[in-house]
Amino acid sequence: xxRMKPVIVVHGGAGRVxxxxxxxxxSGVVKAALRGHRLLEQGGTALDAVEEAxxxxxxxxxxxxxxxxxxxxxxxVEMDAIIMDGKNLASGAVSAVKCVANPIKxxxxxxxxxxxxxxxxxxxxxxARAVGIPEVPEEKLITERSRERWKKNLExxxxxxxxxxxxxxxxxxxxxxxxxxxxxxxxxxxxxxLTGRVGDTACIGSGGYADNCCGAASTTGHGESIMKVxxxxxVLYHMEQGM
Length: 243
Hints:
With about 240 residues, the protein is an alpha+beta fold. The chain has eight helices and eight strands. Strands 1-5-6-2-3-4 form a six-stranded mixed sheet.
C-alpha cells in the first residue's frame, strides 16, 4: 500500500450558528483540525488525532461539549462521548458523565483500560477517579450562555425546539499514514433534557463508527432520530456498497 496521505475532518455540530458566535466557532474548528493534523504529520495515529481534535473543542466554550455543554432540566451538565479504532473495532464510550473536563479522554481510557465499551454516570465517575482523571467543579463547565438558555427554556411559554437548532455536538474522523481510520464524538446533549437522557453520541454505530474496511463517521444532530437508523453505521454500509 505504501504510505497514505493523512487526513482529518472535524465538525463543530449541526444547527445554525448565530452571527455573533460565527467567528469563534469557525476558529475553534480550524484550531481543532490543525492540532489533529499536526499529530498525523508527526506520524501519530488516527486515534490520537481524533482524540486531540475533539479535546480541543471540548475545551472551547463555543461548543456543546466539555466546557460550554448545555444543561439538563435540573441545570446540570451531563456529557456523552465515544471513540473508535477502525483497525480492530476497539471502542470506548461514556454517557451522562459529570465533573470531567474531557469526556473523550475518559472514553479512550474505557477503551484501553477496561474490558467494556461503555461506562455511565456514577460508574464512569468512579472509573475516572481510579485512573487519575481530576474531577472539575461543575461551575467550571457551565458558561453564562448555557445558563441563559436553560432559564429561557424553563419559561412556561418557551419553545425548547427553537433552541435545539444550535446544537454543537463535536466530532472528528481521520485516516493516518498507515491507512488506519478512527472516529471521535463528544456532546453535552440537548438543552433541558431529562436527567439521565443519553443520545446517539455514546452509542456505537449511532454517534460514530470506524472500520478500516469501509471508513469512519461521526454524527451530529437530533440524537433520537440518529439512533433510530443507527446513522453512522448506516452511512458506512452505503460506502461499502460503493456509494
